[in-house]
Design brief:
The chain is of the alpha/beta class. The protein has one domain: NAD(P)-binding Rossmann-like Domain (Rossmann fold, 3-Layer(aba) Sandwich). The protein has 8 helices and 7 strands; from the N terminus they run βαβαβαβαβααβααβ. Strands 3-2-1-4-5-6-7 form a 7-stranded parallel sheet, with helices on both faces. Helix 4 links the parallel strand 4 and strand 5. Helix 1 crosses helix 8 and helix 4 runs parallel beside helix 6. It starts with a strand and ends in a 6-residue tail after the last strand. The model has no long low-confidence stretch (mean pLDDT 98). The structure holds NADPH dihydro-nicotinamide-adenine-dinucleotide phosphate.
């Protein structure tokens, strides 16, 4: 049975991925930070393992690695770095603390998780890492400059690490979702959401299941010759 670690699995896209991988028979260890109840309910429903790990914390990642070793006897086939938060506002109004925090969750978090699990994959000469970027990391979004910069950093990380880890048979890719219907869209009005649907050639918002299906493909053996790629899952919003 393959093993996977998914960060930020308690809600939204992460929860969609936890459900799909578990349903497909993978052993899943997922992290959460605040949503303990939802994490527990998801673990009960899917048989996945929930573990509290703040994406920003080095210590928490050391504990997460120990938990993965305990559950999976050291072998982690895939890692998905998905934990994330959003920030909307003019760049000049953003505080240094908010900038640092956003980068800590998205970029430092991806680094800490990768550094924890990559050595095991390299020694097994097998593994797949997937970052959840965003279409805004590809083209930039007004009033989401810091968020776009974080997501662009993950695309850069994907490309560089794919070159570095490829000779060790570890693949590294990222997904660039479009507008996906999760709590992250809470701040949008119904009019905003309709406008976003209208801008999407396929005429709807994406779902966590849309992203999970692409993640499942990229982490699995059917994608054995795919590395260093940023795959848009955006209904055609960005082409
Ligand atoms: P949600 O707000 O629905 O879920 C966010 C998840 O990330 C939760 O499980 C949350 O856990 C976790 N999380 C947040 N901060 C931390 C932290 N410091 N440490 C650990 N976990 C944390 O968002 P989405 O599901 O929509 O987003 C998931 C990823 O997809 C993010 O990286 C986001 O940027 C990206 N994305 C989303 C898009 C969208 O339109 N929704 C589009 C493109 C990319 P908890 O609640 O337990 O704290």
């Amino acid at each position: 049975m393959p093993n996977i670690v998914i960060t930020g699995g308690s809600r939204g896209i992460g929860a969609g991925m936890v459900r799909l991988f578990a349903f497909q028979g993978w052993q899943v260890l997922f992290t959460y930070r605040e949503s303990a109840e939802r994490a527990r309910a998801l673990a009960d429903a899917t048989g996945a393992h929930a573990f509290r790990c703040d994406a920003r914390s080095e210590q928490d990642h050391a504990a997460l690695l120990q938990e993965a070793k305990r559950l999976f006897r050291g072998r982690v086939d895939a890692l998905i770095c998905n934990a994330g938060t959003s920030y909307t506002g003019l760049l000049q109004d953003m505080t240094t603390e908010a900038w640092d925090d956003l980068f800590a969750v998205h970029v430092r978090g991806a680094f800490l998780a990768t550094r924890a699990f990559l050595p095991g994959m390299i020694s097994e000469r097998h593994g797949s890492i997937l970052y959840i970027s965003s279409m805004w990391g590809q083209v930039g979004a007004s009033c989401e400059a810091a968020y776009s910069a974080c997501k662009a950093a993950l695309i850069g990380l994907t490309k560089a690490l794919a070159k570095e880890a490829g000779p060790s048979h570890v693949r590294v890719n990222c997904l660039c979702p479009g507008v996906i219907d999760t709590d992250m869209l809470k701040e949008y009005s119904a009019d905003d959401l309709n406008a976003l649907k209208d801008e999407t050639p396929l005429g709807r918002l994406g779902t966590p299941e849309d992203i999970a299906a692409a993640a499942y493909f990229l982490c699995g053996e059917n994608a054995a010759f795919i590395t260093g790629q940023a795959l848009g899952v955006n209904g055609g919003f960005v082409i």
